[in-house]
Each structure stands twice: as structure tokens, then as C-alpha cells.
């Protein structure tokens, strides 16, 4: 079995890097082959732009989808993008490890989606969801947040964590992954501290234990459900007989 970890944190000694290293160690101990893309260490450019396409379809006007499709068809995607795609192709499990910044992933991870999930190569109108390139593979988020689990519960002050993570999970489902229930590390206090140092240290140690256990039983971890192509009508809206899994995709009252 092969796993690939995508780490999005600028500090090599960060807690996110520690969780990524923990995942690498625990999975390797179970016989997995594990690779890691440390996006900041790689200097990954998150900005899709004309400069990335050496043989453009239209040198006069840049359109990201058109250039991605052209490069996909001609096998001229940038090497570092093609390398990331190859790592995903080779993996049975993909883990995205990142901190929640302003209720979203760091910009470098959003840019990773923008560039690596290239139109033509990774998805088309016919190649998505259960027909996606990565069907049969699993992907999960491992996210750190600064406050307690209660603040990220339904109607919590920090926002409902399930809704906040839904767009990223949806990206994974869109390209065919089976999306595993996320692992959320609560109370990872950094610049702003709410607790005394001893409490924080104990909490961080407990999170590592929980994360290790989650990885040791990753095959038993439930998936996040998403609709399939047949459950949308010709107008692109969910049909009345289909299940509705999220407030973002629901039946009209």
C-alpha cells in the first residue's frame, strides 16, 4: 500500500510538520510506502499563470482551463505538476495536512488544487465523481485549529467544522476520491494562547496519540458521503429522490 502526504505549513518545526512526520512513521510501521510533498519546502508556486506553459495554446491571452487542457493533451504540463499527479496516481491514500487559516486552507494548498487538478488531465465533464481519475483511492484531511471542539460544533463560534471542510472534501470527491472522515486537531494554540503551557503540551501529546490510532485503523475509518452523477438532473440540480448530505447541496423547500 502507498500513501502520499501533502504538507502545507511554512515552518519545518511546526506542529503540522510533526503530524505529517507522525503519519509517515505510523504508516511505515504498518508496511505502507509513504511519500511527502512539503509544498513550502518545494517552493511550490500556487499561482496558475501563463509562465508555466512553455508551449501555450494562445500566447496572446491566458485562459487557465484552455491552457491546462492543451498541455494535458500534449503532455506538456509543468514537470512539478506532472510529478505531483504521478504521486497521486501511485497512492492508495492521500493525506492533506494543513492548519486552518481564516477558516480556509493556506493559499499554497488552494494553489496546489488549482494547478495539480488540471483540466483535461485530472477532470473533464465526463471524468468526475464516481468516474473520476482517482476512483478507488481514498483521501483525507488532517487539519489543526486553534480553539476547542465545542467552538467548531454546530452553531459554534468558530463555525461548523463539517461545513468549513466541505469545499475541500468536495474537491477530492469531484476527482474521484473516496473521502475519509477528516481528522481535526483542536486547541492547537500558537501565537494566541488561551491555556497555560502545561495544558497545551498535554493536549498536543494527546492529539498525536489520537492521530496515531486513527492511522492504525485507517481502513475502518468511515467515508464522507457525496452524491453521484446520476443523482443530479439535466439542469444540474439534485433530483428529488436522491439523498442530500450537506446544506451546501440540498433539496429546495
From TrEMBL:
The record, for Gene3D superfamilies, names: 3.40.50.360
Pfam families in alphabetical order: Flavodoxin_2 (PF02525)
Report keywords, A-Z. Oxidoreductase
Give all residue intervals belonging to the Flavodoxin-like fold domain. 1-201
Q: Does the keyword Transferase apply?
A: no
- Domain of life per record: Bacteria
Any one Gene Ontology molecular-function term assigned to this protein's record = oxidoreductase activity
Record flagged with keyword Cell membrane: no
Q: Which InterPro entries match?
A: Flavodoxin_fold, Flavoprotein-like_sf, NAD(P)H_dehydrogenase_qn
Q: What is its EC number?
A: 1.-.-.-, 1.6.99.-
The record's similarity note reads: Belongs to the NAD(P)H dehydrogenase (quinone) family.
Task: Please give the name of this protein.
Answer: NAD(P)H-dependent oxidoreductase
UniProt organism field: Rhodopseudomonas telluris
Which lineage? Bacteria, Pseudomonadati, Pseudomonadota, Alphaproteobacteria, Hyphomicrobiales
Amino acid at each position: 500500500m502507498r500513501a502520499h502526504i501533502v504538507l502545507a505549513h511554512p515552518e519545518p518545526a511546526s506542529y503540522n510538520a510533526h503530524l505529517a512526520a507522525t503519519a509517515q512513521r505510523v504508516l511505515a510501521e504498518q508496511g505502507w510506502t509513504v511519500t511527502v510533498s512539503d509544498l513550502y519546502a518545494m517552493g511550490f508556486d500556487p499561482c496558475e499563470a501563463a509562465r508555466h506553459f512553455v508551449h501555450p495554446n494562445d500566447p496572446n491571452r491566458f485562459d487557465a482551463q484552455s491552457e491546462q487542457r492543451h498541455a494535458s493533451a500534449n503532455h506538456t504540463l509543468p514537470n512539478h505538476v506532472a510529478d505531483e499527479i504521478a504521486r497521486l496516481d501511485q497512492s492508495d491514500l492521500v493525506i492533506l495536512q494543513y492548519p486552518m487559516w481564516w477558516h480556509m486552507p493556506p493559499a499554497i494548498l488552494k494553489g496546489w488544487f488549482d494547478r495539480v487538478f488540471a483540466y483535461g488531465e485530472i477532470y473533464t465533464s465526463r471524468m468526475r465523481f464516481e468516474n473520476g481519475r482517482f476512483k478507488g483511492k481514498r483521501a483525507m484531511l488532517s487539519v489543526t485549529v486553534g480553539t476547542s471542539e465545542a467552538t467548531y460544533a454546530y452553531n459554534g463560534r468558530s463555525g461548523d467544522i463539517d461545513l468549513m471542510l466541505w469545499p475541500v472534501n468536495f474537491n477530492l470527491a469531484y476527482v474521484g476520491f473516496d473521502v475519509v472522515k477528516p481528522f481535526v486537531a483542536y486547541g492547537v494554540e500558537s501565537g494566541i494562547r488561551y491555556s497555560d503551557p502545561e495544558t497545551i503540551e498535554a493536549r498536543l501529546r494527546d492529539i498525536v496519540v489520537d492521530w496515531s490510532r486513527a492511522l492504525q485503523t485507517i481502513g475502518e475509518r468511515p467515508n464522507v458521503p457525496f452524491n453521484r452523477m446520476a443523482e443530479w438532473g439535466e439542469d444540474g440540480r439534485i433530483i428529488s429522490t436522491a439523498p442530500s448530505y450537506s446544506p451546501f447541496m440540498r433539496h429546495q423547500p
